[in-house]
Amino acid sequence: MNRNVKKYDIVIVGGGPAGLAAAVAAKDSGSDSILIVEREQELGGILNQCIHNGFGLHTFKEELTGPEYAARLISQVKDRKIEYLLNTTVIDISSDKKITALNKEFGIFDIQAKAIVLAMGCRERSRGALNIPGYRPAGIYSAGTAQRLVNIEGLMPGREIVILGSGDIGLIMARRLTLEGAIVKVVAELMPYSGGLKRNIVQCLNDFDIPLKLSHTVVDIEGKERVTAVTIAEVDSHNTPIPGTEKRYVCDTLLLSCGLIPENELSVGMGVEINPVSNGPKVNECLETSVSGVFAAGNVLHVHDLVDYVSSEAGKAGKQAAEYAVRLDVKRTGRDIPLELEGGIRYSVPSTINPRYINEDLVVRFRVGAVMNNKTVNVYVNGNRIQKKTRKVMAPGEMEEIVLKADVLKGYQSMNQLKICIEEA
Predict the structure, then answer these.
(1) 146, 154, 393, 397: which has the highest count of C-beta atoms within 10 A?
(2) Long-range contacts of 235-244 (CB under 8 A, 24+ apart)
């Protein structure tokens, strides 16, 4: 059956902060044919349930709540008269950039794009992926689900809480539930370091005397109809529970804050190459994926700690998508150089660069695999150190970045090696 095909220069999949910022940047770069496709009933994404402050200091130069930050971006989209579809689910994207979507108004329909920006965000790691023994009683929630229940639905998930995982959402919910009158008994973290920002550990746990137990995990969940108790234990260097270290906490709720997974099922389906470490697409200096004309930004690319970084990254993706839609089939020339990573760097964004397309300073973001003190981040081109940055402390929960100078990179048109390495200060 032939379906009518809607045509746009740029289609942005996802109407959260990344999608909104990409759309604004694409419009400001001269594109007038833009569509945002969002599966929820409103724009803004996860920001709508993040009622705490701490957003916007980089982007808007003032401290905002999540809904306030989202409202600023939504206003920018509406002021520019950028089209968007709500309650619309993308079910497939082909390698030739044809999008198949579904909603109540149009049924199943197709959209042909010249360029696509992937901005689907991420989802929480589920209990099933964590292998926790016990029954499946009521009272087990992801931290994000609990956040939505409290902040949007006005419902309390429980009164006596244990939290597994020290990701930022879990830390923030420890404070939020305490302020609502619940008792948060402990936050257990499998790793020997926290997965969240240092400021959230201080403001959400330390300020409320909530204990954080590193190198601990849940080994038993009691209760058939409803959670009645949770047992945690210390783990060894192989993450195996140590006998004799068990401690039982009577509680009615277990929150899981055990990491985020970029939503890349659509990306994989269209043939985008995925970085096995970040679980996001491999991208070049333009944030373009391995599929020509398909760009990625935000938490679908890699999990960010600040939404301000999401916005700036997505702005670049939107600008590059607009440029691609104009030049279309002009092929890239020159060689893409992979970023070699040493000294404990787990991944970087971008994964490759081509010096011919570096027209402005390039921000490289990365995460380390362990807590590090008094180190330097060094950048080498063809074996020559071109840049260094000293860091007193680096931790896996905090995203790092280094800015590579365009004029320096331009001087290496014959570049055959680019390496970022962490070394002793």
Answers:
(1) 146
(2) 235/190, 239/190, 241/217
* CATH tag for 336-425 (out of 3.30.70, 1.10.3470, 2.60.40, 3.30.420): 2.60.40
pTM (2 d.p.): 0.93
Nearest residue to 159 (alpha-carbon basis) of 255, 296, 52, 262 = 255
pLDDT tens for the 425 residues of the chain, in order: 567 789 999 999 999 999 999 999 999 999 999 999 999 999 999 999 999 998 999 999 999 999 999 999 999 999 999 999 999 999 999 999 999 999 999 999 999 999 999 999 999 887 554 677 777 899 999 999 999 999 999 999 999 999 999 989 999 999 999 999 999 999 999 999 998 889 999 999 999 999 999 999 999 999 999 999 999 999 999 999 999 999 999 999 999 998 889 999 999 999 999 999 999 999 999 999 999 999 999 999 999 989 999 999 999 999 999 999 988 767 788 889 999 999 999 999 999 999 888 889 999 999 999 999 999 999 999 999 999 999 999 999 889 999 999 888 888 778 889 999 999 98
Strand (E) or helix (H) holding 260: strand 260-262
Q: Comparing 1-123+262-329 with 126-258, is the CATH topology the same?
A: yes
**CATH class of residue range 1-123+262-329:** alpha beta
Cis check: omega of the bond before 396, within 30 degrees of 0:
no
CA 302/CA 349 separation, integer angstroms: 8
